[in-house]
Amino acid sequence: MVDADKMNKPLIYFTFGTRPEAIKMAPVVKTFLNDAQFHTKIVITAQHREMLDQVMDIFDIPSHFDFNIMAPRQTLNFITTEVMNKFSALLAQEKPSLVLVHGDTTTAFASTLASFYYQVPVAHVEAGLRSHDLENPFPEEMNRKLADALCSHHFCPTTIARENLIKEGINPSNSFITGNTIVDALLMIVEQITSEEEKKVFPQWDPGKKTILMTMHRRESWGEQMKNVAHAVSDVLQNRQDVQLLFPMHRNPAVREIIEPIFSDHPQVFLTDPMDYRQFVIAMKLSYLIISDSGGIQEEAPSLNKPVLLTRKVTERPEGLNSGVVKLVGTEYHKVHEELLKLIDHEENYRQMVCKRNPFGDGKASKRIHQYVRHILGLDQGIWEKEREAFNG
Asked: Could you list the active site residues?
C-alpha cells in the first residue's frame, strides 16, 4: 500500500560508495533526515565495503538500498557498469525529485550518468574542483568533470570551484557556494572526542616525540613515486630520534607491497590497518604534521592547525596552497626530505603553515545545501533571499 503522506513529499536520493564520500555526505544526510518535508533515501554502492561501513556506523546513517558491488581487485570498468546497471534498475522503479552525489568517485559519475539517462535531476556536492590534468588525479579529474557537465545543480565548496564551472560554461544561477561538508563532519567528531579517549587510542605513542601522520594511496602515486616518498621519510627518521611516524595503510596490495618493506622493521614507525574516522581524527589532532596525497586531509588539516606536505604533482584544492597550510612537495626524494626537515627543525617555518581560518569551510555547508535544495524544489521560495548565507572561501 502506498503511503499517501510520502507521495506529497519530494523524494531525495543520496548515493555514495566510498569512505570519503560517506564522511562528506554524512552531515548533509543527517540534515535531510531531520526534515520531515522530505522523503530521504540513502543508496550505497559499497564501492568500498568495510571502510564505508565504519563511517555509516560512526555517523549512525541508515541505508535503504545497498548494491554491495565490491569485488576482489575490482576494475574501474567493473565499478562503472555495476553502478550504472543497479542504479538504473532502481530509477526504473521510482523516480526521485533529486539525486545528490558527491565529489569525484566512479560511484558519483556512474550514478549521475544513470540519472541523466532517466531524466532525473542531479545535484553535485563538492562541484567544481579542478586540477586541469586528466592524469592527476586519475580517474577523479575525469569523473568530476563529466559529473558536473551532466548535473543540474552544483554545490561548490569555494569561490574558486564555482569560477571553474563558470569558465566551463555552467550556468552561474545553478551553482552555489556552500563551503566543504568535510569541515562539518570533522567538527561533529571533534566535539565528541574526550581527552580520555585520546589517551586510549594510541597508548604506544611516545608523547615526547613529534608525530608525523602519513597516508598515501592514490593510483598515480603507486610504484617509484611512493617508494621515493617513503624512503625520504624513513631516512629522516633514521637521523632523528625525537620523531615518530604513524602510517594507516590502505588495504590495496599495490600500497602495502611498497610501504611494508620500507617501514615494517623501523622502531619509530607504527603501521596500522585503516582507522575508522573517529580514530583518524584523533590521529590528526595528536600529530605534529601530516604527509599525504589525500584530498580530504587538505581540507581537514586547517581546522586542526596541522601543516600538510602534499605528495602530489598538482592539486585541485589551491585554496590550501594559497592560505599556506598546504605545501605541494611532489614525490621526489630530495624535495620531500628537505621540506620535512624544514618543518621539524625550524619553528618559524612550522608557524607559517598553521592556518587561523580554514579556507575550505566553516562548518555550515550542510545547512546551506539543505536551504538550497528547499529553494530548488520550491519549498522556501518566499524566504530564500532572506535566509541564504554564502560561504566566501
From this structure: 104, 126, 140, 217, 219, 250
